[in-house]
Amino acid sequence: MQRDGQLAILDRIMAHRAAGNTTDLAPAMYENPVEVYTDPQRYEHEVARLFRGCPIVACMTADVAEPGDYVTLSLTDVPILVARGADGVVRAFRNVCRHRGTRVVEGRGEGAKSFMCPYHGWSYRLDGRLVNPTHRLGFEGLDRAGHGLAEMACGEAAGFVFVQVDGAPGTLDAAAWLGPMGPELAQLNLASFARFRDYRSPRGMNWKLMGDTFCEQYHLRYLHHASLPSIQSDNSLYDAYGVHGRMVTPTHGVAELDDKPRDSWQLYPYAITSYMIRPNTIILVLGDFVELFQLLPEGVDRTTSVFTLYATDAATARGDRYLPRAFDLLRRILDEEDYLMCEQIQRSFGSGAQSHITFGRNEPGLIHYHQSLEALLQPAVDTAREVSVAVNGHAAVRAVAS
User: Fold this and answer.
1) Are the C-beta atoms of 64 and 70 separated by less than 8 Å?
2) Which residue ranges of the chain lie beneath pLDDT 70?
3) Which of 14, 17, 38, 157 could bridge to 175 as Cys pair (CB 3.0-4.6 Å)?
4) Could you give the CA distance from residue 187 to residue 199 in angstroms, rounded to a whole number?
5) Three-state SS at 290
6) What is the model's pTM?
């Protein structure tokens, strides 16, 4: 983030502190029906509209930085292969062999020249073209051009690789999808970060419930008072970027800036910046390392969280214990605190105790998150423009007493 942007954020935080530890507030409370998290028909609608009809972050550009680098993932039962070709172009395919339907490759790798199916040895070039069936006589006359890997829409912007399951190749404009958030994310230079470690956590909850925990700081004072004592709930900021959002969470150390001239202020390490890329991706920026969260639904009440830490060379050079500590701390907090609470909430929905849950005005990120999803679920909209117009009025307001 550029210097002027950092100072503008810090000015807002300091204004909240001066006003008596206020925080950004939404215009009104919001009632979210329990069925949003439990209705199987709604879940199928979300799969069709959000996870197959919208661009989804598949990985970071850093994961496929060089030709032959590849990553695989599964998105609502669709196996996906993302690879950078010899021509430098990143592409996405259904990770399905055109012979018998097995997955062509698993995991991630670097410098591949081609991909070979483990079942019968059919191989494919980095651009998806079928090289050769292994039994030439058995498949003599096969239309090779029509039996390459099935390509889907794919695009890069601001250090992220997006895929759209139901999109045709060449139709995904990743920069347009990010909209006004894109230029700010581009300033982070995320393509220069390197993957450090990842962790998968399958849990018994709806994917949006998992997303909720990233969209508000209200719980920090209570749930994480011992595990994250340096992070505070007060003075937090939220801004809408069309359907996407940015949340800024200050640390208690921000008080040190009271005795420093404004022209020496730095955003990090005095705040954590969280970018919410709809529908299912969150990236936490902590200066010279970032934490990416991908929420991958597997059913109305089953979701796998994929947490990956990326770091700059400077962060890696600090020593062997620095990044592992940061990684293990957040993994433990999520698994033993946040996700544990969310699983309890998911089970409580079956109790009949409530028809809805209530988001307070001090939870503007939650309100905007669900309003954005509701807008995206509407049929036949131009998501780059009309959805932005539909939700732009619901950002947090400034400095109102908490």
Assistant:
1) yes
2) 380-402
3) 157
4) 27
5) strand
6) 0.93
